[in-house]
Amino acid sequence: MEQLTVKEKSGANYVLFEMIGVFNAYTSHVAQNKIYDAIKNNNVVLDLSKIIELDMAAMGIIMAAINDGAETGHSVYLKSLSNEADKQVSATGFKELLKIINSVTEVK
């Protein structure tokens, strides 16, 4: 069965979630609450370099976290998109509006 592993690391002004595997409707519960809880108090960085599948349910979680962050003055950053993650992010039509970074030093 496909699975998602989420490794959490804290930085000076962010919480980094390294996402590994499949981030979709079946596995999103692994990350959803962690992301929603973190965005209340910190910027959130989602490292998507090791994602092998990303679906619209996962994008919905990301977009909801972006909206929640806007209410608290925090941002969601997408770091190092894998090819599959990049395809799905591009398919949303919002790629230019998202904060996509290559390094956590870009977090403001």
Report mean pLDDT, rounded to a whole number.
Answer: 95
Biggest sheet statistics: 5 strands, mixed
Q: Let me know the number of strands.
A: 5
Using only C-alpha atoms, the radius of gyration works out to 12 Å
The sequence of SSEs as H and E is: EEHEHEHE
The proportion of strand residues reads 25-35%
Low-confidence stretches: none
Name the overall outline.
globular
Strand order of the largest sheet: 1-2-3-4-5
The number of distinct helices, counting runs of at least 4 residues, comes to 3
The N- and C-terminal alpha carbons lie at a distance of 37 Å
Briefly summarize what is shown.
Helices cover 35% and strands 33% of the residues. It is of the alpha/beta class and 108 residues long.
Keywords:
single chain; 108 residues; alpha/beta; 5-stranded mixed beta sheet; 3 helices; 5 strands; 35% helix; globular
Question: Would you give an account of this structure?
Answer:
- The protein has 108 residues and is α/β, with parallel strands linked by helices.
- It contains 3 helices and 5 strands.
Strand and helix layout:
Layout: E1 4-10, E2 14-23, H1 29-39, E3 43-54, H2 56-72, E4 76-79, H3 83-92, E5 99-101
Parallel strand pairs: 2-3, 3-4, 4-5
Antiparallel strand pairs: 1-2
Helix pairs in contact: 1-2
